[in-house]
């Protein structure tokens, strides 16, 4: 096998090995990876033939790109192509549409996601592009070391989206593939130095000289053997170094103190017990619509409580307080060890009536996510495992890959019962809170603010304005609840929802929160579960179809108050 062919095979293997890290992200890992591997093999063969012709480097890349386009057309949109192979303008249009659908599917489904046509195209096309770049660097330009950058990018995407589901085996496979590529490139470079000649032996004639006589053929054979040995020596050394590097890469992290992971980026680690850090801006809504559309309402949580009325027992997971025009998401905030008890509820006056509820919760073994569902506002949490507290949202977040799977915990929480008069007469919040929770992006269409002003015309207080928005969405505005509509939480999605007037809880919650902010009312969005179904005295089950989103509005003296604009789920604060 020639050096170029060996390099091509190594580049193919390194790319496929790194792409393997993407397989835990989808529920059908084999089919799309086989397609990507086949396309890359064909492109590698095209590259080998082009370089032997030889073609100029840009023409080699062009030949591979054209071949890739034809193969992608055959795999995904053959009905729009000439003879099922040659792409036409309609082919490009359909491919672009599939890419858009794939991007929507990525935000809609939780991992492992179903392999829709759009997601399959994203996976195959992404791996093929990375493979072409690796082949270009390692084979065409004979620079294997920089080829590690696209391979690292591919693995990093998988590790980031996997949120802890990517095991060390995938790292081992990706690293081994890259090391093999380096070894192949090093061997090719050594062989290009030419034949290695040994010097004359001490005290004897030079190899192959007249004194060798009839032994010249044997000398040549010995020379070739020595050359082979000298060439293989650095290869063997490289293999040993590579194996040692892989071993250290796997062993050292296991011996070091735990550095956190998943959602956390600890800033002050002290061994395995960090007490500070940040919770990053992740989007917990990717599976909400999928949850609502599940054919079977699988049990997520069971709980028992001493609450007099479980209608207030919304199990809140996280607060989305940042709206950038593209999506609502939790802001990046400091986290800390879980205090006992939790800090006082911000903004809650002693004059507001409240009752302490104690709730024992058990999560299903299959329910795996990083945010802990709790009644709001929690006062004390008793739970085993690695959990951290985020004070602004009063949420608990798993650390060191801690998840809710099989968790059993007890939460003491307040049932806050403000009167309508207390809400109407709430004083102005502090300016810093108003500034943070009333900001809206410039991309928000003016129709959102205009509609908010129209709906709340005549209301005399923030509470009355919030109540008017709730009533308009839930009863008076002609909205229809539908979980099959297109998902989205950005500015354009809100404007589209106000025009079409159909959607599910996400649309109602995001739209009311955005409209409240345009009126100067501090608002955010909460995600969690509705109270569930009673199965016994004080005992309830929460199913996957109880997943929900709702807006929270801030009133000084009362704190964050839940509203329910989603039709049929309205529960007006009183």
TrEMBL record:
SUPFAM superfamilies: Cysteine proteinases (SSF54001). Residues 204-233 are annotated as: Disordered. It comes from the Bacteria. Residues 497-567 form the Transglutaminase-like domain. The keyword Transmembrane helix applies. The chain crosses the membrane at residues 29-49, 61-86, 118-137, 144-161, 167-184, 241-264. Keywords: Membrane, Transmembrane, Transmembrane helix. Signal peptide: none annotated. InterPro entries: Bact_TGase-like, Papain-like_cys_pep_sf, TgpA_N, Transglutaminase-like. Pfam families: TgpA_N, Transglut_core. Gene3D superfamilies: 3.10.620.30. Residues 204-217 have a biased composition (Gly residues). The keyword Transmembrane applies. This is Transglutaminase. It comes from Streptomyces alkaliterrae. The lineage of its organism: Bacteria, Bacillati, Actinomycetota, Actinomycetes, Kitasatosporales.
């Amino acid at each position: 096998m020639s050096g170029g062919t060996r390099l091509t095979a190594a580049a193919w293997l390194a790319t496929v090995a790194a792409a393997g890290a993407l397989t835990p992200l989808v529920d059908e890992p084999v089919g799309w990876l086989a397609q990507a591997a086949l396309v890359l093999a064909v492109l590698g063969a095209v590259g080998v033939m082009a370089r032997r012709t030889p073609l100029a480097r840009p023409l080699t890349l062009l030949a591979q790109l054209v071949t890739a386009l034809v193969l992608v057309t055959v795999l995904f949109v053959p009905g729009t192509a000439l003879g099922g192979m040659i792409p036409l303008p309609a082919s490009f249009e359909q491919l672009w549409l599939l890419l858009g659908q794939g991007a929507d599917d990525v935000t809609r489904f939780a991992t492992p996601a179903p392999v829709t046509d759009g997601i399959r195209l994203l996976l195959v096309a992404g791996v093929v592009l990375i493979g072409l770049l690796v082949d270009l660097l390692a084979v065409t330009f004979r620079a294997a070391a920089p080829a590690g950058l696209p391979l690292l990018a591919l693995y990093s995407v998988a590790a980031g989206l996997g949120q802890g589901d990517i095991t060390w085996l995938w790292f081992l496979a990706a690293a081994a593939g890259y090391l093999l590529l380096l070894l192949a490139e090093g061997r090719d470079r050594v062989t290009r130095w030419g034949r290695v000649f040994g010097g004359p032996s001490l005290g004897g004639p030079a190899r192959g000289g007249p004194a060798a006589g009839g032994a010249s053929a044997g000398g040549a054979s010995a020379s070739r053997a020595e050359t082979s040995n000298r060439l293989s020596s650095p290869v063997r050394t490289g293999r040993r170094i590579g194996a040692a590097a892989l071993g250290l890469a796997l062993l050292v992290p296991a011996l070091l103190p735990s550095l956190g992971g998943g959602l956390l980026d600890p800033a002050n680690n002290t061994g395995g017990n960090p007490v500070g850090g940040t919770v990053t801006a992740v989007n917990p809504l990717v599976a909400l619509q999928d949850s609502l559309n599940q054919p079977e309402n699988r049990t997520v949580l069971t709980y028992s409580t001493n609450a007099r009325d479980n209608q207030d027992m919304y199990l809140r997971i996280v607060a989305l307080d940042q709206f950038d025009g593209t999506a609502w998401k939790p802001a990046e905030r400091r986290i800390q060890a879980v205090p006992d008890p939790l800090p006082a509820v911000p903004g809650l006056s002693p004059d507001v009536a409240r009752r302490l509820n104690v709730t024992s919760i058990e999560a299903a073994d299959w329910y795996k996510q990083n945010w802990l569902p709790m009644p709001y506002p929690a006062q004390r949490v008793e739970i085993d495992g690695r959990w951290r507290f985020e004070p602004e949202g009063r949420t608990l977040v798993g650390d060191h890959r801690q998840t809710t799977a099989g968790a059993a915990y007890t939460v003491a929480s307040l049932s806050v019962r403000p009167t309508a008069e207390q809400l109407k007469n709430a004083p102005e919040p502090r300016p810093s809170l108003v500034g943070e929770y009333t900001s809206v992006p410039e991309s928000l269409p003016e129709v959102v603010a205009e509609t908010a002003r129209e709906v709340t015309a005549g209301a005399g207080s923030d509470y009355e304005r919030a109540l008017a928005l709730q009533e308009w969405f839930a009863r008076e505005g002609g909205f229809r609840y539908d979980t099959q509509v297109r998902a989205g939480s950005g500015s354009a999605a809100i404007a589209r929802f106000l025009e079409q007037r159909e959607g599910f809880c996400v649309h109602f919650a995001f739209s009311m929160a955005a409209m409240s902010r345009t009126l100067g009312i501090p608002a955010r969005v909460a995600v969690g579960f509705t109270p569930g179904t009673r199965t016994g005295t004080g005992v309830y089950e929460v199913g996957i179809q109880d997943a929900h989103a709702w807006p929270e509005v801030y009133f000084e003296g009362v704190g964050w108050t839940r509203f329910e604009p989603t039709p049929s789920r309205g529960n007006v604060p009183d």
